[in-house]
Amino acid sequence: MSILEFPAQQDDNTAEPLNFGSQEQAAGFVLRIAQLAAFERFFALFPAHDIKISEYSVLVGIALNPGVRQGVLADFLKIKWSNMTKLVRTLEDRTLIGRRVPKNDRRSVELYVTEEGHKLIDSVSQDMETSDRKAFQMLSDDEHTQLLVLLRKVAGWPPRGADAKGPQ
């Protein structure tokens, strides 16, 4: 049986699994399909909020890294600089973030989250966590932890929290 089975869209409502051969053993291919499936489940579960997921990710990144520069955040999140400029402008227009020029380097601009931005994070964060966990409910807690460890490794991110300790 195929690792990946996708119901083919047919007029008679019958589903046949599609075979992708060696692609099913290609980590990048399976990761991309898993990403799309996870996003689909996540967005179906995530309650409506007045913020896009990409905006929320940038907002949280700024909140947890006050003073971060826009380019550094864009590079870390793999967002094109031109797209990051639009995201930052949107968040700034909504008074969720602000910019300030540090006294020690007048050429750079630091980002910070406003009080309004912190309130929005507080109102969205629980729904975000709940929706994410429900989107991956087919995984046990150990599998979920292992998935995060492996994804962080693939992303080139250092271990965090429980996965920083390594095998016990």
Automatic annotation (TrEMBL):
It comes from the Bacteria. GO terms for molecular function: DNA binding; DNA-binding transcription factor activity. It holds the Pfam family MarR. The keyword DNA-binding applies. The keyword DNA-binding applies. Gene3D superfamilies: Winged helix-like DNA-binding domain superfamily/Winged helix DNA-binding domain. Residues 23-156 form the HTH marR-type domain. This is DNA-binding MarR family transcriptional regulator. It comes from Roseibium marinum.
